[in-house]
Write a structure and sequence with these properties.
The protein has 132 residues and is mainly α. The protein is 69% helix and 0% strand. It has 8 helices and no strands. Helix 7 runs antiparallel to helix 8. It is globular, with a radius of gyration of 14 Å. The N and C termini lie far apart (41 Å).
Amino acid sequence: MSTVLPNSPYARLGGADAVARLVKVFYDIVETSPEGAPLAAMHAKGHGLQHARVEQVMFLSGFLGGPPLYAEHHGHMNVKTIHAHLEITAVERDSWLVCMDKALTQTETEPTLHKQLMAHFTRISHMLQNRF
């Protein structure tokens, strides 16, 4: 059992329920907004959005400093490996970032945390782009 640090992004966000809510709102945006269409299409070529919803909750839990659910289930947290089966261009990358920014806004994430998370997500999403 892991210890959640009180100042971790996971704790600051609100813990397990808040992470699950963020992921739900994020994928609802992906499925219903024009900005999410490229991401929805990409996931349709992969394991699908329902799979992504579950995996994203597990991944973000550990990524944000909470229980390492993804690592416990899959044995790693290598985001390049996780996304290797997907073609990620600037279009999908930017779609993900826009949808996550909207999800953080809709879940009323504290502004400083929102900004910090988007900085991390932006850095990682640029690293994940594998088609230029």
